[in-house]
From TrEMBL:
Catalytic activity, as annotated: Hydrolyzes the peptide bond -P2-(S-farnesyl or geranylgeranyl)C-P1'-P2'-P3'-COOH where P1' and P2' are amino acids with aliphatic sidechains and P3' is any C-terminal residue
Upper lineage: Eukaryota, Fungi, Dikarya, Ascomycota, Pezizomycotina
Protein's UniProt name: intramembrane prenyl-peptidase Rce1
PANTHER family: CAAX PRENYL PROTEASE 2, PROTEASE U48 CAAX PRENYL PROTEASE RCE1
Family: Belongs to the peptidase U48 family.
Provenance organism: Choiromyces venosus 120613-1
Keyword entries, A-Z: Endoplasmic reticulum, Hydrolase, Membrane, Protease, Transmembrane, Transmembrane helix
Length: 294
């Protein structure tokens, strides 16, 4: 009598992948409301150093729990059973070809910001405010350029995306759907603005406008970061790109101070950068370590 062969692992459903994504998103934001040191409230600015430190500690705890959870899910719902295999699937493993992938992704992103880079470095006489130094010497810089990108990309890329892959979703679906959780997570900034500006008569209108705008551009970036993660198999590419984008901010569309030719140069480079980004998007993200082929 022949026995029926058992499956090597359980099957993760799209529902479970979505459920884990909701839990991670809710936890990443919700933990900030558990303490009076971290929750938004009148008279407590989010840029206060002790608030930043407390929030970094809080989201770091969530990041570790999410990472362990996704590793366990990967172990039970896939054929990957070693620490190295699981780490590689979650995009955490670093080796020489992957570091080159990271550099290519950074170059690709810098191409998109060609106009703003030249504007800051040359047309406006460099970074006069010393923003580079502030990246590591202030708590605001540490949050914006190190802790924020690291924890967000670990949770919303390394922890979420592989689960949707295990659930059998297509690359295009994952690129479109998973960043929505990333965008939704930023809606709490609307409530933060509302509570921090109790005397603003237009705070509801401003809150709605700000939240929709922030949801839009965070989702757009999420699409890009998820694309990079899937194409390179490295969450570090997404982290460094995220940090660079935070440092650059949104491109300015006003005239450059000084002579008119500076504005002409800036807008030509803005268009050239966007064109170069479009042409280099696929070639520079090609990697032998891709999690999935598009």
């Amino acid at each position: 009598m022949s026995s029926i062969p058992e499956k090597e692992h359980l099957e993760l459903t799209p529902f479970l992948a979505n459920l884990f994504s909701v839990i991670y998103t809710s936890s990443y934001v919700g933990i900030l409301y558990l303490s009076h040191l971290t929750r938004p409230q009148p008279g407590l600015a989010r840029d206060t150093p002790f608030v930043i430190r407390a929030r970094i500690r809080a989201v770091t705890v969530v990041t570790i729990i999410a990472l362990v959870s996704s590793a366990v899910v990967t172990y039970f719902y896939s054929s990957r059973k070693t620490y190295l295999d699981i780490a590689e699937f979650l995009g955490l493993y670093v080796k020489l070809p992957l570091t080159l992938d990271i550099l290519w992704c950074l170059l690709l992103t810098a191409t998109l910001f060609l106009g703003p880079l030249v504007r800051r470095l040359w047309l406006e006489d460099g970074w006069r405010e010393g923003n580079v130094g502030k990246m590591f010497t202030t708590w605001i810089g540490w949050r914006n350029y190190v802790a924020g990108p690291f924890t967000e990309e670990i949770v919303f890329r390394a922890c979420m995306v592989p689960l949707h892959l295990l659930a059998g979703r297509s690359p295009g679906t994952i690129v479109f759907i998973s960043p929505l959780f990333f965008g939704i997570a930023h809606f709490h900034h609307a409530y933060e603005f509302y509570t921090s500006n109790p005397h603003n008569p237009n705070r509801i209108t401003v809150m709605i406008t700000r939240s929709l705008f922030q949801f839009t551009y965070t989702t757009l970036f999420g699409w890009f970061a998820t694309f990079l993660f899937l194409r390179t198999g490295s969450v570090w590419a997404a982290i460094i790109t995220h940090s660079f984008c935070n440092f650059m901010g949104l491109p300015e569309f006003g005239p450059v101070e000084g002579q008119r030719w500076k504005s002409v140069v800036y807008y030509v480079l803005l268009v050239a950068g966007a064109s170069g980004f479009y042409r280099l998007l696929w070639p520079l993200t090609e990697s032998q370590h891709a999690l999935v082929r598009f």
